[in-house]
Specification:
GPCR_Rhodpsn; GPCR_Rhodpsn_7TM; G-protein coupled receptor
Amino acid sequence: MLRGNKSHVTEFLLLGLTSDPKQQMWLFASFLAMYLINVAGNSVIIAAILGDARLHTPMYFFLSNLSLVDICFTTVIVPQMLVNVLTQTKTILFAHCLTQMYFFVAFGITDSFLLAAMAIDRYMAICNPLRYTTTMSPRRCLLLVIASWVLSHLHSLTHMILMACLSFCGPNVIHHFFCDVQPLLTLSCSDTSVNELLAFTEGSFVIMTPFILIIVSYVYITRAVLRVPSGGGRYKVFSTCGSHLTVVALFYGTIMSVYIRPSSTYSATKNHVVTVIYTVITPMLNPFIYSLRNKDIKLALKKLMRKAE
């Protein structure tokens, strides 16, 4: 763990969610079940969209990408955590810790951008239906998705490079179940002011910009819906946005409470609960949220099941 004349941390100790053996086995079973449901549910959504030509539209193109990102997002964290619980090995190499942090941040930001792209799609479909086909063309939708992936990875790369420049020469215990930005910053014996500034400003920008786009889109959508004369018509128009709004509320409600604040207010216990919600529970629930009240997805799933028989 110590290298050369100057002490330097080469590995970290992930404490996880609990040290109680009984609770660990319960958590192992719970997280394994949630992870398998997440992978299976999101994979089925992707397969259903790819297998039904009626779903080859911008909204479902974004949804299939969101499902893929949700699988990747949880896969970065949960399998490693399950291995640590099963083997009772809590150590993680410095390089592996940075890699996990990199992909966690990248997929989290990609999720945020994709949710904004879906809000823009709903805005165009409801507020500008005559221009929808030309504005949300396959080429532009593909560019939106590529931009989401590229920008999120560039943002994450900046975080990783700055984190790699810090010195870790003191405690190496991370009070978390994976390597995240804030817990790592609290362990550094270097000046973390640049990292803090990046996390609070540029980090806030990549989280808040998509969020503001979503809010503005839904303000215009609400205005358009209220102009519909009949109550039934208003419900029919707005029902297409219900699933997306639920996912947005779950995702942003938890992620903003963790990241858009100074690290001086960091609380390990509080963050554990909130982090589990947006890293494990929300990705697991997304397939159910998008399919339970969506007739198109239900029909595509039935079609997929008939093919599998």
